């Protein structure tokens, strides 16, 4: 066995033991308020008495907003390196980018047909 592997194993096991020890210590040292009414109450965004049920259905527009975010924002992560190296990639890279842009355009048509772009 190499010394690097042994050292990595020792560090990994040491970190695991230290973290386990910290979790056990916090269980014994930390405050214990299991029956506290305030601890078990619901608190979300400043609202202490929520109204309604949490098992409601969300509109598909939330999903479509996420798709539009992926289409219009994250695509830049893939397009910028292509634009930097477009001369080196040649026609093969150009064809691949047209395929990628076609898939993005298909997604744009999908969210347009679902009327996610209309803000009512």
From TrEMBL:
It is a multi-pass membrane protein. It is found in: Cell membrane; Membrane. Keywords: Cell membrane, Membrane, NAD, Quinone, Translocase, Transmembrane, Transmembrane helix, Transport, Ubiquinone. GO terms for molecular function: NADH dehydrogenase (quinone) (non-electrogenic) activity; NADH dehydrogenase (ubiquinone) activity; quinone binding. The chain crosses the membrane at residues 6-29, 62-83, 89-112. The keyword Zinc does not apply. Gene3D superfamilies: NADH:ubiquinone/plastoquinone oxidoreductase, chain 3 (1.20.58.1610). InterPro entries: NAD(P)H_OxRDtase_bac/plastid, NADH_UbQ/plastoQ_OxRdtase_su3, NDAH_ubi_oxred_su3_sf. Its EC number is 7.1.1.-. GO terms for cellular component: NADH dehydrogenase complex; plasma membrane. It catalyses: a quinone + NADH + 5 H(+)(in) = a quinol + NAD(+) + 4 H(+)(out). Its main location: membrane. It is an enzyme of class 7 (translocase). Belongs to the complex I subunit 3 family. NDH-1 shuttles electrons from NADH, via FMN and iron-sulfur (Fe-S) centers, to quinones in the respiratory chain. The immediate electron acceptor for the enzyme in this species is believed to be ubiquinone. Couples the redox reaction to proton translocation (for every two electrons transferred, four hydrogen ions are translocated across the cytoplasmic membrane), and thus conserves the redox energy in a proton gradient. NDH-1 is composed of 14 different subunits. Subunits NuoA, H, J, K, L, M, N constitute the membrane sector of the complex. This is NADH-quinone oxidoreductase subunit A. The lineage of its organism: Bacteria, Pseudomonadati, Campylobacterota, Epsilonproteobacteria, Campylobacterales.
């Amino acid at each position: 066995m190499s010394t690097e592997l042994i050292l990595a194993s020792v560090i990994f096991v040491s970190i695991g033991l230290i973290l386990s020890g910290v979790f056990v210590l916090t269980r014994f040292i930390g405050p214990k308020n299991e029956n506290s009414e305030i601890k078990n109450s619901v608190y979300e965004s400043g609202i202490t008495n929520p109204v309604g049920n949490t098992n409601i259905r969300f509109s598909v527009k939330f999903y479509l907003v996420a798709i539009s975010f992926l289409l219009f924002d994250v695509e830049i992560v893939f397009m910028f390196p292509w634009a930097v190296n477009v001369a080196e990639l040649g026609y093969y890279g150009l064809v691949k980018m047209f395929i990628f842009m076609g898939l993005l355009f298909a997604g744009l048509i999908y969210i347009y047909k679902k009327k996610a772009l209309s803000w009512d």
